[in-house]
Amino acid sequence: MRFFVDTADIAAIRELHELGMVDGVTTNPSLILKSGRDIAEVTREICDLVPGPVSAEVIASDAEGMIREGKHLAEIAPNVTVKVPLTWDGLKACKALTDDGHMVNVTLCFSPAQAILAAKAGATFISPFIGRLDDIGLDGMELIADIRQIYDNYGYETNLLAASIRSVNHVIECARVGADVITAPPSVIKAMASHVLTDKGLDLFNADWAKTGQKIGA
Ligand code: G3P
């Protein structure tokens, strides 16, 4: 399973990248706002750091505008993935941009029907949002499992990129059902290292070690 990091925070991306944990990056307008950076500038910086796909999102709502903005974003670096919303115009833009040789991430996917259309339009990635479905009392993970099954039934090549991940459990469940990629905030990726029994075990080892009076390498 590939790990994308869902942030435009360069320091956070660098820390995870140095550990080999970043296969790509996803951003969106809210994350650009949070970074306080210019979209072209920060996207270029991320692309210089991470060789994998880096998603940058268009803002236009019509296909023509999305294609224009998408081509503009794609000029920033060869690993830019143009992110378009799952609307009818977004699907038109997806088809045009993929036909033009660009990687496209179709975002804001909330149903299997939408995911089928994105695959038909040639999307490189489909981004179903788990957390936002959970937020309204639905089961985001069921959507991931449904898309996995449908894509496998027909051999669709679009990568299933599970987004809106809010917890370690979301990551584990995505791995269980076979998402190709997860995109998660740095905090969730770092939380994967934690376990209460690891902390407890370490406390015990440290206490026992202190009683030995020994030092390593002294
Ligand atoms: O990048 C899109 C997605 O991951 C957003 O997540 O937590 O804002 O629903 P969230």
From TrEMBL:
Keyword Transferase found: yes
Keywords of the record: Cytoplasm, Pentose shunt, Schiff base, Transferase
Gene Ontology MF term list: aldehyde-lyase activity; transaldolase activity
Enzyme Commission no: 2.2.1.2
Active site (record annotation): 83 (schiff-base intermediate with substrate)
Any Gene Ontology CC annotation: cytoplasm
Reactions that this protein is recorded to catalyse: D-sedoheptulose 7-phosphate + D-glyceraldehyde 3-phosphate = D-erythrose 4-phosphate + beta-D-fructose 6-phosphate
Domain of life: Bacteria
Entry-linked PROSITE patterns: TRANSALDOLASE_1 (PS01054), TRANSALDOLASE_2 (PS00958)
Pathway, per record: Carbohydrate degradation; pentose phosphate pathway; D-glyceraldehyde 3-phosphate and beta-D-fructose 6-phosphate from D-ribose 5-phosphate and D-xylulose 5-phosphate (non-oxidative stage): step 2/3
Localization (cell): Cytoplasm
Keyword Transferase listed: yes
GO annotation, biological process: carbohydrate metabolic process; ketone catabolic process; pentose-phosphate shunt
Matches recorded under PANTHER family: FRUCTOSE-6-PHOSPHATE ALDOLASE 1-RELATED, TRANSALDOLASE
Sequence similarity: Belongs to the transaldolase family. Type 3B subfamily.
Function of the protein: Transaldolase is important for the balance of metabolites in the pentose-phosphate pathway.
Protein name: Probable transaldolase
Species annotation: Paracoccus alkenifer
